[in-house]
Design goal:
mainly alpha; two-stranded antiparallel ribbon; two-stranded antiparallel sheet; 14 helices; elongated
């Protein structure tokens, strides 16, 4: 929860601050003149002591800086933050847990997620075998019987949820083939946009696709039937579920739209981004492997959030003042996202190393991990640019004042007690 932003009050505070800075500068100038005057008086006093013959007596001066250091040593805090406020910042153990979480994620990404399936790549004339993900293999075995054919329940779903846009061959649509038709068909995208295209194609009897060159193609394949409008979402969802467990599966949400990116030059074959996306899908980079890759994010979120809620989170309900509650909630949120950012940053560096180990194979790229990294990077920018810093400093300064006054009050009571003891 953020503090409410009172711009007018902030402007007035800033004006008062400027005025106070001017007054402080004047006081410093007066302080320097006063110190010089006191030093002169002290010199005269010491000369008078010599003339009186009291050689053992000598008065020494202390600078204001030395006085400040003495006062600073007497008080319980260092003039920056009280202990309770320091605990709301990142501690050494927080960095250690975040680094540990990132390291665990790197290990899982390297040993469990790997790449979608076993494949052999050619680099410099050499054939290199790369092992696929055991977890993705488990997902691929769902919906397949012992003879490697679709299970009965999958074929039943295909029969029940037939749709007009399930077209797999058309020479007029570049790149459309049985293995790639779900990549090019926009209604096969498992997202809100896919639902919209699916309802539109079911009702109007059309097939909407992006071909290999990124061109939008709409073909009439059936009669328009508005009576299917209310059943269309169910047909779309049922058809997607039946396609998930086929050999090629369905693409990752939004993956079909990468066919619009007809630029770039990657790898030995100088593929564009659209061609790389098509190649990755053909090599098994589908929704099932997306689920495998998401395990890395799940591990990071589980470790960090469990540690945060059990160890780090401070209770804001203990404070009666709303400003205090909001301060604690904001600082709690900042600490949580700082830990997540550190963990995702380490895991992302590990994924870069993994891609290098896999000889630049794009299938080693962990999309969910990088989406999580981007999300936390944006959150960090929001934290840095937040408008509540002034309020937080005011509350922290008030905590220092309260603690020092309590300390002074306790010292006064202690002195009074000692003076009255017989």
């Amino acid at each position: 929860m953020d503090f409410r932003d009172f711009d007018k009050e902030i402007d007035e505070l800033q004006q008062h601050q400027v005025q106070m800075n001017v007054e402080i500068d004047d006081l410093k100038s007066n302080q320097i003149e006063t110190e010089k005057h006191l030093d002169g008086l002290l010199y005269e006093v010491n000369e008078l002591v010599k003339q009186l013959g009291c050689e053992g007596m000598k008065f020494e001066s202390k600078s204001m800086e030395e006085s400040h250091e003495s006062i600073k040593m007497e008080f319980p805090n260092d003039g920056l933050k009280v202990n309770s406020d320091r605990l709301l910042d990142m501690q050494d153990r927080d960095y250690i847990v975040a680094a540990f979480s990132g390291a665990v994620a790197v290990v899982i990404d390297s040993l469990l997620v790997k790449i979608p399936k076993d494949m052999t790549i050619v680099r410099g004339g050499d054939r290199i075998f790369q092992e696929g993900s055991s977890l993705t293999k488990i997902f691929r075995n769902i919906g397949v019987d012992e003879s490697a054919k679709a299970s009965h329940w999958v074929t039943v779903l295909e029969k029940w949820f037939k749709v007009p846009y399930d077209k797999s061959v058309d020479p007029e649509i570049l790149g459309l083939a049985p293995k790639t038709h779900r990549l090019h068909s926009l209604a096969h995208d498992p997202s809100l946009l896919g639902l919209i295209w699916g309802i539109k194609d079911i009702v109007t009897g059309t097939f909407t696709s992006l071909d290999r060159n990124g061109c939008l193609v709409v073909e009439k394949v059936a009669e328009t039937d508005f009576s299917k409008l209310f059943a269309a979402p169910i047909l779309w969802l049922g058809h997607l579920v039946s396609d998930i467990f086929t050999k090629m599966g369905i693409p990752i949400p939004g993956w079909s739209y990468l066919q619009l990116l007809q630029f770039g030059s990657f790898g030995e074959k100088q593929r564009s981004i659209a061609e790389v996306a098509r190649y990755m899908y053909l090599e098994g980079y589908d929704l099932r492997h997306f689920a495998s890759m998401s395990v890395v994010n799940a591990v990071i979120e589980l470790i960090i959030r469990l540690y945060y809620y059990l160890v780090c989170k401070q209770r804001s309900e203990e404070f009666s003042l709303k400003a205090e509650r909001e301060y604690v909630e904001v600082k709690n949120s900042i600490k949580l996202h700082n830990m997540l950012f550190v963990s995702y940053a380490i895991a992302s560096c590990g994924n870069v190393m993994k891609i290098c180990i896999y000889q630049g194979n794009p299938n080693a790229f962990n999309l969910p991990l990088w989406l999580g990294m981007i999300k936390e990077a944006i959150t960090q920018a929001t934290i840095i640019l937040r408008s509540t810093k002034s309020y937080e400093k005011v509350i922290e300064a008030r905590h220092i004042i309260d603690e020092n006054f309590e300390y002074l009050y306790s010292m006064i009571n202690k002195t009074d007690f000692e003076n009255h003891v017989p």
